[in-house]
Each structure stands twice: as C-alpha cells, then as structure tokens.
Design brief:
The structure holds 2 protein chains of 2 kinds.
Chain A: H1 15-34, H2 40-70, H3 74-112, E1 118-130, E2 138-141, E3 154-156, E4 161-168, E5 173-177, E6 184-189, E7 195-200, E8 207-210, E9 223-226, E10 238-246, E11 255-260, E12 269-277, H4 292-300
Antiparallel strand pairs in A: 1-2, 1-12, 2-5, 3-4, 3-12, 4-5, 6-7, 6-9, 7-8, 8-11, 9-10, 10-11
Chain B: H1 17-32, H2 38-42, H3 46-57, H4 64-78, H5 84-105, H6 108-132, H7 144-161
The chains are: A alpha+beta, B mainly alpha.
Amino acid sequence: MEHSPPPFFKTGPTPLARLLIFTTLSLVLLVADARFKYLEFLRQVAAVVVYPVQRIAAAPGEIARRAADFFVTHSALREENARLHQERLSNTLALQQHKALQAENEQMRALLGARERIGTKATLAEVLYSARDPFSQKIIVDRGLQHEVRGGQPVIDQIGVVGQVTRAYQWLAEITLITDKDQLVPVLNVRNGLRAVLAGVGNATTLELRFVPLNADFQNGDRLVTSGIDGVYPAGLPVAEISNVERDASYPFARIACKPLAGVNRSTQVLIVNVERSMPERPVEQEERPARGKRSRKAGL
Amino acid sequence: MNTRAISPQEILLPIRPAFIIFTLVVALFINLLPWSGWWLWLRPDFVALVVLYWCIDQPRKIGFTSAWLLGLLMDVSDGTFFGQHALAYSILAYAGIVLHRRVQRFAITPQVLHVIPLLLMNDLIVLVIRLIAGADFPGYQYFVGSFIGGALWPLLTVMLKLPQRPRADPDHV
C-alpha cells in the first residue's frame, strides 16, 4: 500500500457495504445449515480442500505417539505378552461357549422363523484429533466414505460404546461422542432390564439418565447396556455405570448421573460398526373405516 | 516512543501476496493441530489473529473474501455450523479495515489494547451463535485464548514484518 499509488476511483464497494454482503451470506449459510441441512454437498467440497492441512496438522501427534510406542521397554512388552496370553486362554473358553450358544441360538431362531437380526462388519479407525470446539464433544477419525463409513453408524472401542458417526467425509468421519450434549443412547439396566434413555450433558465424564420416574429401580453401580430397540446400536454393548442417584420429590424425575465405561475421550482407536439389519417392512397403515356416526356428522356439517 | 519498535514511518519493501497466503495457511495449520483439554482453552484463534494483522497492515491486499473463506474452512474442519466462523471473521476483517489507520499510528504495545477487544468480539460472535443454537455456556475460560492472542501480537508483528525489512546495505557506514 505504501508503494503503489492508491487507485482512488476504483476501490469497489465500501467496507460497510462489503460487511453487509458477507454478513448476510454467512447468516444465510448458518440458517440453511442449522435449520434446513441444505449444505452437505458444499461441506463435502470444503472438506476435501481442507483435508491435506488436517492430515498434516494431525501428523505431529501421530508421530509422537508412534515414537512413544517404539520406545517401549523390553520388560513392559514381556509383561503385556504374558497378560495377553492369559487373557487369550480365558477368552478361548468364553469363545467356545459363545460359539456353542450362538449355534444353539441360530438353530432356535431358525425354528422360530425369526429373521437374522444383525449382521455386523466393523472398520477399525484411528482417532486423528478431537474437534477443537469447546461447545461439543466430537472426534475426527481417519476413515470415511471411501471406507464405507456412513452417517449414523455406531462407534465402539474394546470396552463399550463411544459414540455415533454424525458426518462422513471422503477420507474422514466425524464422530459425536455419547458425552455430547443431546446425544442420546437407548439403554437398559442389566440388573433388572429396565429401559431408559441415556443423554450426554456436554462434559467428558458424566452422562445422565433422562425421564426416569422417582420410584424406578436404578441404583448406584448398575451397569447400562444398549437396548438395541433404536435400530442404531446393536443390543448388549456396555455403555455406562450409574454413579449417583438423586431422588428429590419436588422434581417429577429422578436425577441419575452415570459414568461412561468406554474410553470415550481417551481411546486412540475405535471400531465403526457397520450394522446391516433387515428390519421388517413398515406395516401399511390401515385406512380407518369411517364410522357411520362420523359420516353423518360430516354430512351434517 | 520506543525507537526499536517498527514504526509505520519505516520504509519497508513491498509485501508479496504469496507471503500473505502462506501465513494464512500456516495459521490455519496451527489451528488444526490436535489441541485438546486445557490447551484448547489457552489456544488463541491464530487464523483470527493473522487475518486481523493483515487487515490492519494491508487492508488493500486482503479483505473480506479471504477472511470469509478461511472461516468456512474452520467450520468444516471442526464440524461446527457452516458460517459461524465465516461471520465472525468477516466482522473481524471489517473492524480491522475500519480501524487500520488508527491502530497503525500506535506503537506495538498499545496496539495490543486494540487487538484484545477485537479478538474478544470475535469469540463473542461465535459464542452467541452457539448459544442461540442451543449450546451451554462453556465457562469464562473460553475467553482466555483472546488475551493470549493479544500477548502474542508483538511477536507476530515482528515475525510478519521480517520479509519486508530491507536488507542491511553493505556500503552503508
């Protein structure tokens, strides 16, 4: 600016006019995105543009982790090896039983003519980073549309449910953790089979059970697993443990705080479960046969 | 006035547009590093800081379009609402362009006092949008990043001015 003579007669619109243009544009985008979800295509395009920068930026963390992995001590490895060996032995037993039970179950299902409920396939994904947005609990992983990750798929780690894929880009996917505000998981209490809805509150260590009546039988230490009736999460995955139950008669519902079981904000690798389910067709709604009285009333009107 | 400060009267080389683009990409890159936990609260918005710097220093070379596009990229990479950073950066760019003559008159330290409120305004816009969309107030630590951004301003000024400073003339005694 100091060196070129300012072009006095062609500076374009004034800053205020430009501000108005861009503000309007942003507001239109905001409303179109937040209200009507029109902009998924534009988001996909922008995601491809920003992808290289994202990957490069995630690299230092990844390199640090790999380096830390590399310098594991010999004794630590041997210890882990021994532990894994033992685990494998005990798992083999469980697996055998599981296989027998599964076979039995399949047979009985076949007998009952029940449909195969879930065929599951899973994709292992590495967490690139957690979204730098203090208002939400999300992580970004390195698998996307190209690896058959789709929006809506449940995400688990070795312990239990971590979250749900909310947006899939070409090579990345965005996972909303169960601790995110307004992320809901239908659960049931292992101890007595009571069903409830588990919701995040927005911080990484607490969840709450919503709309549970005061007298419902939920106690500290109860384990909650997915109930599977939502058609999103397969049934029986561990989700949380009840940490505090507060019953106050002045509120209509009990306040039940829970702790997530899975390493929701710690795990570096997660499994994206591809749930293929054959849901029964939605029944055709039967047309209500107009009652005689109704018709006559209509005629009267 | 401190004679060592880079005063606007100093004769500098013309800026290269490629350098501006380079710094913006680097700022985006730093923003996209895997910040988490406390670091996330402490992290200033580097893109906002660099956009503001160029709007104050070179209001004819950079303006709303780049600020707005960078805002969109930020929104995509964080999976937030489309347009929240775009809106905040546009208003930030406007403030920078309108105030550039005034801010340039000041030495670097008083400039910080202009920069911090502008960065806070930037944060506030994002906050208001999220609150309208139904998020909870994340706590006052949300604003800490802006003050740290202000503290980094002198360093940023020196670094971004480096390529513009004329090389020492070997014949000069």
